Structure formats: structure tokens, C-alpha cells
Amino acid sequence: xxxxxxxxxxxxxxxxxxxxxxxxxxxxxxxxxxxxxxxxxxxxxxxxxxxxxxxxxxxxxxxxxxxxxxxxxxxxxxxxxxxxxxxxxxxxxxxxxxxxxxxxxxxxxxxxxxxxxxxxxxxxxxxxxxxxxxxxxxxxxxxxxxxxxxxxxxxxxxxxxxxxxxxxxxxxxxxxxxxxxxxxxxxxxxxxxxxxxxxxxxxxxxxxxxxxxxxxxxxxxxxxxxxxxxxxxxxxxxxxxxxxxxxxxxxxxxxxxxxxxxxxxxxxxxxxxxxxxxxxxxxxxxxxxxxxxxxxxxxxxxxxxxxxxxxxxxxxxxxxxxxxxxxxxxxxxxxxxxxxxxxxxxxxxxxxxxxxxxxxxxxxxxxxxxxxxxxxxxxxxxxxxxxxxxxxxxxxxxxxxxxxxxxxxxxxxxxxxxxxxxxxxxxxxxxxxxxxxxxxxxxxxxxxxxxxxxxxxxxxxxxxxxxxxxxxxxxxxxxxxxxxxxxxxxxxxxxxxxxxxxxxxxxxxxxxxxxxxxxxxxxxxxxxxxxxx
Length: 533
Known about the structure:
The protein is of the alpha+beta class. The chain has helices at 16-42, 59-71, 76-85, 104-112, 115-129, 212-220, 243-248, 269-288, 309-312, 324-327, 353-370, 374-377, 385-391, 393-420, 443-453, 459-465, 471-505; strands spanning 90-95, 131-139, 142-148, 153-155, 161-168, 173-183, 189-200, 234-235, 240-241, 253-257, 294-297, 343-346, 431-435, 507-508, 511-515, 522-526, 531-532. It has 17 helices and 17 strands. Strand 4 and strand 5 (161-168) form a beta hairpin.
């Protein structure tokens, strides 16, 4: 069993806070190299190992190979990641006890904390790193929801302990905050609190997420150094109780996970590395072997003889070394005089078609393994619309699974934020997230679906299920329909009033004006039948 690395100096053997802080901090440090790898692949900055450069290469050619190392990357990691996270779109919340009206309080909390923007960052972290984190903090009578990065945060598997790492660059102090739940003998959370430990340090222990060059350099280094926290942290004064978290029964630091704990392309890094290696090899072949190379076979001597034209012409003496650079000079009218028994050899151009075919096959395997439609990784793929729909089934299922996992985290975050803002009854409320469609239908398909069910289902249900409208949009639409109905009724009533007024103006006493179609004579006809011409 490996030795336990306790980070708190002079910690007692029964100090469980020191134990959990040390365990989670060590796990965070052990995860950093993987995060560097994932980030480097996502940014397309990974490099083929330098040992891929042929040995014995001269300095001029070595610079060319180094350039190939930088260019030989195929950035499918970003496409695979963003194709998932960009399809996760929460549009609102509604209470489980009332499936018609959305939860106004939850939506208000969501908007005030700008969660439309923050949720995108969390989804990105889950898709890239396998985990995303949200933090609820009570500020007076208000609550703030923040996003924490996986580079500084780690939560235990049972969600009863968590840490957050930070570094104060001005004061040169790094700090680790521990969050813990205490449970009674029945397993019910009785207390949630946090405390911090700090140490003086000239630099961060873990890599900062914004330090891109250090991240790339760490992963591409041939000998990466181990990342470990020093064992001289000391507890800061004070322990802060978190009553709003105790009321809800869980930590204010909440993790969104991918299920497997890995990002979308993390299991497929070997396949991505193989594609990078193939691209590097093609660059080398195309550049270094694009032109035919020539050589002379059968050259058995290296000095001039009496019979050579150069000796006869007085340009050289017998026994002098042959100047091959002058003898075989390049030029449009150059003529080479080969000695007896010598022959010219010419190389063949390497055909890279098979390499390109193999690479395309590997892309198909990558698309199938990651559940990414092939037409996204390779736009020139042709096929039927039905075939494209079937290819997207795995992608839609993957996004639906991530949405279900995110729903639990969002409900817990919003419930705690509402409790922290002063509504203690929200601790027992149940919400569900309303999601935008993963794959939006065309306007024509939605219109056809509405036309089929308009005489069967209520208007609001049609708007919600077939037009994919949010509850706010439904309320606005219903108000617009009411306004239109009122306006139509008002127009009809106005027209009837105008007609009655016109009829009144055409009436004189007990007579009504009529036209005699036979002679064109207008007369006033009495309602009793008499007329006055």
C-alpha cells in the first residue's frame, strides 16, 4: 500500500479533515497531467514524439522535420467535444407537481446568475474533462452560483467531501478549502461546513488553466515532472458553518459528471495519436520523396585516367581526384559523360494513395467509436437522409444521457440557491429541467405535425411538444392569441355599429328610401306600405 501523503503539518492521527483534504488534493494533483493531455489535444497542439525524426538527420533537414511535428496534427478532438456540448440547451424549469407552469422562482434565480452563459462552460468542462463543477455561495439575503474549473476542484465519490484550490499571486500564498458533510447515526446530514489550509509558495503547485504554453509544454515534454503538493500546509483560523447547505442536505460544491469520469475523446486518444502519426509520415514522404533521386551505379574509380577527356583537354592530370560536382553539374543542356561500366539509377515516386485510404478508414473507426456522425468529421461523405438520421442516433442518445445527469445537478444547485436566498421551503421542492430539442426539426416538419394533431390535442400541448416552445413563449403566444381575438371582436362590433349608423342616416321618420329600378325614381316608402312621391 502506498504511503499516505498528509499535507497538513503536525496533523493529529484522528484529524479526519486533514485526511480528506490530503486525499482529495493528491487526487487533484494526479489528475493534472491528464487534464494537460486533454487540453493539448483539444487545442490541436499535440506533437508527434521527436523520436519519430529519422536518426542521423543533418541540421538543415532536422528543422524541416521539426516543422512537420508542429503541422502533423488532426484536430478531431475539438469537433467531437463541441458537437456534444453545443447540443445541451436548458431553456427553463418547472415544478414536478405542476407540469403546466414553469417555476418562476427557479427561472428567476437562473437568469440572475447568468446561468445561460455559465451552463455552457459547465457542459464544455464535462464534455472535455469528464467533470464540471458549480458552487452556491450565500451573500447576505442573496445567493450566487459560480462555475469552478476541474483544474482547481475535486469532489469525493460519495459527494460528502470536496476541495477547491487557489493561489494568491500577490501574497504568494496557496490555499486549499475543504468542504465536508457530517452525518448522524441515521445517515442524515447534520452539518455542512468548510475550512481552509494554506502555505507560502513562490509558485502554483498545479498548472493554471489559463497558462496554455505551460500546459502544451508539459504534455509534449519527453520527461514531464511529477506534480505533488508540499507537506507543509497549516489550518487557517475558523470553521465556517453553511446552514443553507445543511438545510438541503448536501455540499454547496456540486459536480456534473459524464458517467464514466472521462471526457468525450479521452478513451480514444490512441486513435487520435495514430492519425497524427500518419499525417506526419505523409508530410515526410510528400516533401522528402516527391522528386526522383538519381545516382550512378558501377563507378569503380575516383581519379582521372590518361584516357579521360578532361586529361586530354589539359583540365586535369592523371591521378587527380575526380570532381563529381563539376562532372555531373545540373543544367538544361548539361551532358554527363559516364565512365565505362557506369550506369544512371533513378528512384520512383512514392504513392501515398494507400496511406490516405488507411487514414480515411481510421477516421470512420473513430467516428463509430465516439458516436460522432461521420459527416461531421468528414464532410464529403454522401448518403441518404435516412442513413444520416440513423448515424445520429448514438449522438442523440449520448446527449440525452448527459442531459439527464445535468438535470440532477441543476435541480440541486437551484434548490440550494433558493434556500440561501431565504426560502427554506424550497429545500423539499422538486424541479425538472426543460431542454431545447437536441436536433431541431425544420419548420415544414413542425407545421405538418401540428396540422395532424390540431384537432386532437390542446393548443398549449401542441406548442410545447411539437413546436418546442418554452413556457414563456407559450404565455406570450396565448396572450397574442387573446389580443387577436379581442381585436377581431372589436373590429366586428365596430363594423356592425357603422352599418347601423348608416341605416339610421338613410331613414327619415317612418319612411325608408328605396330605388325604383324600372324608372329610376327614388321614393320614400312608409313602413305601412304608403308612399310619398
